[in-house]
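=== Structure Prediction Worksheet ===
Name of assembly: unnamed complex
Input type: mixed (protein and possibly other molecules)
Chain count: two
Listed entries:
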Amino acid sequence: MPVVEDVYPSRVSDRPQLARRVDPVVYPGAPASRLSKEDAALYEKDGFLFVERLFQPEEVQRLNQELRRLTSSEQVRAREECITEPGSDVVRSIFRVHEFSDVFDWLSRDKRLLDTARQILGSEVYVHQSRVNLKPGFSGKEFYWHSDFETWHMEDGMPRMRALSVSIALTENHAFNGPLMVIPGSHKTYVACVGQTPENHYKQSLKKQEYGVPDHESLRRLTDQGGIVAPTGPAGSVVFFDCNTMHGSNSNITPYPRSNVFFVYNSVENSLQEPFCGLRPRPEHIAARGRFAPLQPLDRG
Amino acid sequence: MPVVEDVYPSRVSDRPQLARRVDPVVYPGAPASRLSKEDAALYEKDGFLFVERLFQPEEVQRLNQELRRLTSSEQVRAREECITEPGSDVVRSIFRVHEFSDVFDWLSRDKRLLDTARQILGSEVYVHQSRVNLKPGFSGKEFYWHSDFETWHMEDGMPRMRALSVSIALTENHAFNGPLMVIPGSHKTYVACVGQTPENHYKQSLKKQEYGVPDHESLRRLTDQGGIVAPTGPAGSVVFFDCNTMHGSNSNITPYPRSNVFFVYNSVENSLQEPFCGLRPRPEHIAARGRFAPLQPLDRG
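=== Predicted Assembly ===
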């Protein structure tokens, strides 16, 4: 059982509960300053920040090339990090890409991402999780609403809200090809979910979320307050979002695939404890465990 | 077997085929003139026309009231016209509503709808099919791409493309709550689907389309040419679309339900023959059979 206090209990009651976030969103003491004051304030208020065309078309092309190499490699497809769509062998996600792809390793240390993460989290950071998500055309499935933090806290033992995700669009995000949807302001409320977590739940949950699922009433309250935003834009656009921002996405029947790279940056001062749900930790490719050295910026010079 | 020539064969080959439409889109000889020349030309070109706020908030309120009455009536829920979501008892669609609800009967004969249909189809018309679709919040399922005409032709024996649908939004259509998506210009191409139609297929297909499904390559060609449009707007907005316009919708995980009323108007000169797939006709509530008297406009005076 965890040795630190659980300030965000969940899955212990048979009724959902809404609690106020007790952690900062933008931490003081930033070792880097990449965002403008206005953008940092926007992130603090909304729990996300959309930056159009942060990466250039040539960079996106290179990332897509690497993605094609990975998804067509039998070796990669055989890895446990590779998750297929329910009922087919189409690749849905590949985890821990930054560890077996130089291109994605470099991307995770690109200053445009890394310095933003360091600024918001007010400390050095490391990669807690990385993955590519491929939402194929015609058959991309929905991801139901969730706060990443609820899962990371309960199932991985992340103590506090001091992590963020960045999603880099590798294809154009239209309104209609299942874009990421976020509920602005939802990061300031912690939705404690009902029920218990079963063992080895993660294998299923990566395909279709069934535990740690927020209830309808809580979601209605969050959207009544903040609405829903689905940032759209060309490939190379980026969304930074807080670990507790409620998000999800609809299905994609259009011919246009939606591919994104995700990096989760966690503060080195927020490294994982034992899972707060009392079960064994999920595997390393879902949640990097142990103490990590600060991630070093990529020196392109 | 049908006595009239089958100018739109489908489900006979093991390879999909694209054919040119041989029928007009906007027929001459209109007995009514409701649309402007520009709007009629737009409909001819795109295969659909979006009219924002065609119905007033008070009218929408009345329709929603009636919808609530219908979905909560045990008598209605027990009818074969009432279709539930896969794996639940939530009402997804109610067919033939204009025949057992005065309010929806009146709506089907409202001049704003009826005169537009008469103008486009160049003749008197009747209601081939009516239904309400409820795409509930949180769990609304997707409808895969389809041309209504392909199904109506093959399974119901509609001889020619001389019918249109109108969808009246009873809730706000956002970009993210699974709005109707159409492929502009797709109505001018007939996508012949592969495979055979099994008996009693309709019971399944109303929940999840599995036959008469256009192939990926054909869909890609249509979207390469026309893109995708998902008209959004407040409740009371209306989309008129041609019977052969390729359309579909994504899932809806948002808390916002999406409810629409559909009327399909068919020309009285295009009444149903034997199904072109050679099987028995589907039931009356899916496709009204026999010769119909011209639908009479509602006299509100």
